[in-house]
Design the sequence.
């Protein structure tokens, strides 16, 4: 093998690759991984096959969590719950007790669905008015237990 004007033997090439791989391992060994990432990796190893999901917009319209979860479990379905719209948690629009008003309520609802064996996923509308706040809310939703977060990009404020 030639690199520029220098010829490398196969042994030299493999030795160099070994050194580079070792350096990479050392670099990774000295980093700390976010607990949410560790949890996701563990989930992905034990994840059941992909399944169909039901999207829940507002509990006041679609039904209470206690009604939805057992029905989805009986039918081997996952759930995708709308957690926020822009920088507003869904409790702004959903007036039932227990509507999502922040990360702790996301954790409560995620836990309920997951206890029924219903994989909990989330979705949110992003508006770009306060990107930092929206990014933090997205991170909070994932840290609170959502397996994934789908971002809904709508064309204008009166999309619906």
Sequence:
């Amino acid at each position: 093998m030639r690199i520029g004007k220098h010829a490398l033997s196969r042994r030299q090439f493999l030795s160099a690759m070994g050194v580079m791989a070792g350096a990479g391992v050392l670099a990774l060994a000295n980093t700390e991984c976010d607990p949410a990432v560790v949890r996701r990796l563990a989930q992905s190893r034990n994840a059941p096959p992909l399944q169909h999901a039901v999207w829940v917009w507002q509990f006041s319209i679609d039904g209470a969590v206690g009604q939805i979860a057992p029905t989805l479990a009986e039918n081997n379905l996952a759930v995708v719950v709308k957690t926020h719209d822009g920088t507003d948690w869904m409790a702004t629009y959903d007036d039932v007790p227990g509507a999502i008003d922040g990360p702790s309520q996301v954790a409560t609802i995620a836990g309920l669905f997951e206890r029924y064996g219903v994989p909990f996923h989330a979705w949110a509308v992003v508006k770009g008015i306060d990107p930092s706040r929206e990014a933090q809310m997205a991170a909070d939703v994932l840290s609170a237990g959502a397996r994934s977060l789908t971002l809904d990009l709508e064309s204008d404020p009166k999309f619906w």
Observations:
- The chain has a mean pLDDT of 84.
- Strands lie at 2-3, 6-7, 53-56, 78-85, 88-89, 120-125, 149-152.
- The first helix runs from residue 10 to 29.
- The chain is about 45% helix and 20% strand.
